[in-house]
Design brief:
Blueprint: H1 2-17, H2 21-37, H3 41-48, E1 57-63, E2 68-74, H4 78-83, E3 86-87, E4 99-103, E5 124-129, E6 132-144, E7 159-166, E8 173-185
Parallel strand pairs: 2-3, 4-7
Antiparallel strand pairs: 1-2, 1-5, 3-4, 5-6, 6-8, 7-8
Length: 194
């Protein structure tokens, strides 16, 4: 019983300081699967045609100021977000001149958006897609209610919206980072056969 108690306490400490360790291991495997999926010509064709299926790998999101990068999945359902950050299917994919929205966890399943609150105005967020690389600059961060679906609206320019539960260890609110597209570059994700 002492050993069990010590293990439970250690798990709680690791979760508070870093992230939930068991789901982190599972999420790391899912991230590798998503990376491999983007080598599958069928998946790449669907993404390039802007018609990915739920659960498809669609690209990678990078946070240079945080030193982090995560593979992105199509969809924001529970199973999707266990794999990594998920693209809201009701929003555009990068390069369409409209709102692009991505959600992610902060404490479980690899905690890809754990440090979303560390992003500051002007910092870059880069989204790599098979058809191009899209550079966004953070405009602002805002705390909203969970039912604030206005964040997904189109605003007349290409905007990236990143959302996660807030505060840490709670789903009471959402932290939302808004960023504006500032550059489009050639793709860095290599397609099969190229």
């Amino acid at each position: 019983m002492i050993t069990s108690g010590c293990l439970l306490l250690a798990d709680a400490v690791v979760t508070v300081v870093w992230q939930e360790p068991i789901s982190a291991v599972l999420a790391a495997r899912e991230q590798q699967t998503l990376e491999r999926q983007l080598r599958d010509p069928r998946v790449v064709r669907r993404v390039i045609a802007r018609r990915p299926l739920p659960g498809d790998a669609i690209g990678r999101i990078r946070f240079p100021s945080l030193g982090e990068a995560h593979w992105v999945v199509e969809g924001t359902g529970l199973d999707d977000l266990r794999k990594g950050p998920g693209h809201y299917p009701e929003t555009a994919l990068p390069g369409r001149g409209r709102t692009v929205a991505i959600a992610g966890h902060r404490t479980t399943h690899g905690a890809p958006f754990r440090h979303l609150d560390s992003l500051r105005r002007g910092q870059r967020v880069i989204v790599d897609m098979p058809y191009g690389t899209f550079v966004y600059r953070v405009q602002r961060t805002q705390i909203v209610d969970p039912d604030a679906f206005w964040i997904l609206r189109n605003v007349g320019y290409e905007r990236l919206v990143l959302s996660a539960c807030h505060p840490l260890y709670s789903a009471a609110q959402r932290i939302v980072v808004f960023a504006r597209l500032v550059a489009r570059r050639p793709p860095v994700i290599k397609q099969q056969g190229r």
